[in-house]
Design brief:
The longest helix has 18 residues. The chain has a 5-stranded mixed beta sheet. The chain has a domain of 75 residues. Helices cover 38% and strands 34% of the residues. Strand 3 and strand 4 form a beta hairpin. The chain is an alpha+beta fold and 109 residues long. It is built from 3 helices and 5 strands; from the N terminus they run βααββββα.
Length: 109
């Protein structure tokens, strides 16, 4: 069975507003996740702790990140996407994703 991917409100637009090659790479990774699940391994996906995971897209225009969590069954919810400008994932981006993660996981129960 294929995985289901859903997006927090506005996240699809965040991906569609990324530079073209970065957007294409992110969409390709999401397709792979839909087929095989999110355990693609480094450098494509990486755990961020407390049930939060990162999708890593790289292209000439920079580095794109998507932050996601698992919901019941084969369901992945993409919480936030952004173009990374520094070496480390910015704390405000992580905080936003963690807040959304709590929201969608509490809503699911």
């Amino acid at each position: 069975m294929a995985w289901k991917i859903s997006f927090y409100s506005g996240v699809e637009d965040q991906i569609l507003n990324m530079p073209a090659k970065l957007q294409a790479r992110m969409l390709k990774l999401l397709e792979l996740i839909e087929k095989h699940g999110a355990n693609l391994g480094v450098p494509h996906t990486e755990p961020m702790g407390d049930g939060l995971f990162e999708i890593r897209a790289k292209a000439q225009e920079g580095i794109g990140r998507g932050l996601f969590c698992y919901l019941k069954g084969k369901h992945i919810h993409v919480l936030h996407a952004f173009v990374k400008k520094s070496q480390k994932t910015p704390i405000k981006e992580l905080a936003l994703a963690r807040q959304r993660q709590k929201e969608v996981q509490n809503h699911e129960s």
